[in-house]
Amino acid sequence: MCIFSQILKFSMTQTNFMKLIIFSFLLSVSVLQAQNENAYKDGEWLSFKIKYGWFKASTATLEINDTIYNGKKLFHVIGKGKSVGLLDVFFKVRDQYETFIDAYGLPHKFVRDINEGGYKKHKELYFDHQKNTVKVQDFKHNTTDHFEIEPNSQDMLSAFYKLRNIIGNDDLKKGQEFNLNMFFDNENYYFKTKFLGTEVIETEFGKVKCLKFRPYVMADRVFEAEESLTFWVSDDQNKIPIKIEAQLAVGSLVAELDNFKNLAHSFKIVVD
């Protein structure tokens, strides 16, 4: 298949690549076992390369910084995704997601500002966890709506950082299933993911011992089947995403960690 045909087919699924990465991250760490130390710290930065078939199509980054929001000391998390190479010529993607989370891992504000091949969306969510409501401002359509949410609801980005702090691996059992509540795109979601066991995988940094998970997602125009997504997070105190594999309706996608800075804990490499 020629490269141009691959690019055109990939454009059908590219609008969801950043959503895929973030959903995978948050689902991969939905195992509720307590840790004594934070899994992340101010200044952490993660970078990922995303391949469709054999060519590099996109990049994504996640970073976290201390900030003051409404007089409160919070973490400001920014996730960015963009197309590269030939795909960027035919289907330019510039996505940015932001969340402001407190010491308990609860989001106070969430921002989704995307431009995917000319399709644009800019929404900001303001959470009120005492009333279990969220205000959604849609800047594209100039609307404001209010929705009820589940207690302690997360946005799609805050969930990743919340659960990194409470995941543990001492009591994990192969086949265990775990659930997570989240609010996204004006709806409440309930996800399920299964722990598949531990696995040592090859990376750009060497061999890394990982926890392997599989979420259950509805088959639609993006995912090929309920079990089409598999991902790995580091089996250490950082719990950072290492690799994601997804079978899409057209082709397959692989995302891999290719760089990092300012981790809260040492990054362990398996030495033979």
| Strand percent estimate | over 45%
Mean pLDDT: 82
Rounded radius of gyration (Å): 18 Å
Number of strands: 14
Please write the string of helix (H) and strand (E) elements: HHEEEHEEEEEHEEEEEE
Q: What is the rounded distance between the termini?
A: 39 Å
Structural class designation: mainly beta
Number of helices: 4
Q: What is the strand arrangement across the widest sheet?
A: 8-7-6-5-4-3-2-1-14-13-12-11-10-9
What's the topology here?
Elements lengths: L2 H12 L2 H12 L16 E8 L2 E15 L2 E12 L1 H6 L2 E9 L5 E10 L2 E10 L4 E6 L4 E6 L9 H7 L12 E8 L2 E17 L2 E11 L12 E6 L6 E7 L4 E10 L11
Antiparallel strand pairs: 1-2, 1-14, 2-3, 3-4, 4-5, 5-6, 6-7, 7-8, 9-10, 10-11, 11-12, 12-13, 13-14
Features:
single chain; 272 residues; mainly beta; 14-stranded antiparallel β-sheet; 4 helices; 14 strands; globular; disordered N terminus
